[in-house]
Amino acid sequence: MENVTLEIIHKDLEFVKRELMEIKKHMVDIDSILTEDDYKALQEYNIEKSEGKLTSHEELKKELGL
Fold first, then answer.
1. How far is residue 51's CA from residue 44's CA, in Å, rounded to a whole number?
2. pTM to 2 decimals?
3. All residues at 6 or more sequence positions from 15 whose CB lies less than 8 Å from its CB, including other chains
4. pLDDT at 41
5. Which end of the chain has the least Cβ crowding within 10 Å, N or C?
6. How far is CA 66 from its chain centroid?
7. CA distance 15 to 41
8. Is residue 17 very low, low, confident or very high in pLDDT (cuts 50, 70, 90)?
9. pLDDT at residue 25 greater than cutoff 70
10. What is the three-class DSSP state of 16?
11. pLDDT value of position 47
């Protein structure tokens, strides 16, 4: 069995740190991925918008008397 020295531990740790940095560079921000439900909701929004069915924030405030 190999003797585990501080030098070996240090080299292994440096390797793990480099690998982790490489993984971090290629990670995708989970908030930037659309789920199927998100995609459907976006499609519905676009249809309602094009049909003029949406109420603006300002119009809603007026309707609610705010």
1. 11
2. 0.47
3. none
4. 96
5. N
6. 34
7. 44
8. very high
9. yes
10. helix
11. 96
> What type of residue is 13?
L
CA gyration radius, the chain: 27
Q: Find tokens 């909701």 and name the residue.
A: 41
Going from the C-alpha of 54 to that of each of 44, 45, 57, 59, 64, the distances in angstroms are 11, 8, 10, 10, 15
Encoding tokens for residue 18?
Answer: 């480099």
H/E segment holding residue 51 = none
Give the integer Cα–Cα distance in Å for 10 and 7. Answer: 5
Q: Where are the alpha helices (DSSP H) in the chain?
A: 6-25, 36-50, 57-64
Task: Compute the mean pLDDT over every residue in the chain, rounded to the nearest whole number.
Answer: 92
Distance (Å, whole) CA 56 – CA 21: 45
3: tokens are: 């003797």
* Both structure tokens of 50: 């094009």
Kindly state the tokens that stand for 19.
């690998």
